[in-house]
Amino acid sequence: MGAISGSTGSGQADPGKGGFPHYMLKEIHEQPRVIGDTLDTMIDPVTSRLTLPNMSELKRASRLALVACGTSYHAALAGKYLMEKLARLPVDVELASEFRFREPVLTPGQAALFISQSGETADTLAALRLCRESGLKLLSLVNATESTMAREADAVWPMVAGPEIGIASTKAFTAQLALLSGLALALAGHRGHLEEREEARLVRALRDVPAACAAVLAETGPIEALARDLVAPARNVLFLGRGPCFPIALEGALKLKETSYIHAEGFAAGEFRHGPIALVDENMPVIVLAPSDSLFPQMASNLAEVSARGGRVIFMGDAAGLARVSGLAGHIVLPDIDPFASPLLYSIPLQLLAYYASVARGTDVDQPRHLTKSVSDEQG
After folding, report:
1. How many angstroms separate the Cα of 17 from the Cα of each of 7, 14, 131, 221?
2. Whose CB has fewer CB within 10 Å in the chain, the N or C terminal residue?
């Protein structure tokens, strides 16, 4: 959809929203540019090769900890899938709020990457300082290069998302995913696990993402209808994903509960039979992320299980995948894209579902209750 006229409470149009009714929708629509700008910081325009700085510490690392909170934690989980598969580097993903309290085992040769939109997240900063005391190399991925986290790390990879006003993170999240995807490729090359031809293919896949996201954003009517008719009336919603799309399912659930106050949970689809399937009934929307990758047959099986138990399945995948499934309450058809880039593309319609469900329920989209943009009070 294009720009939508909106107004402030005084009835005056808010120029900061660029004609959109909410900052969240404006920032969702900025993502093709933000993802493209982020990729431009990593990819040489002449050679199309990855050119990330500060790779020497990671190249030598025997293990990597990714430490974050909330949305950034979900980005880190997706990064783990990509880094371990491509670079064959062991990766631990840590909730910053738990990290220092569980007395983690930190060993020489390990590195730690701290992910934060603001660079001021108190729990993540506390984890960074614990790692410094243990002699680890400290890396950060932040949107604010003047932040405390950027200053205290040994090396920084900056996002270029620009200011994000909406409390529910959108464009900062996809900027994190883009950086982590590029980092996984660069790390794989440095560690000798990625041939030049395969690197070029995966770089092209990343380059395809902004146009694919723009195509989704150009036709949001079906997503708005599903959000209004199936998601907004629900009391509970489940999200299922596999592989790198499992963290995206977690993020989709977080976005929905942050903005609409609907109870939502994300699950690894392989775990669905181990308890969550008991929740399924005719009132339960189940959003299934099913890109056409090597895991599609397993996702189709999960979809059939939900349908057989009366669940209201919303399928999210490409046209080829849609042709292979049935028994749907609704579907969101996305452009064809290399599975490597699926986490980036599949994030966009989930953000839109959360946004439109929230609008339908009349919640404060940009300022959800009880939430702040940066959690700067340390817990404990």
Report:
1. 9, 6, 40, 20
2. C
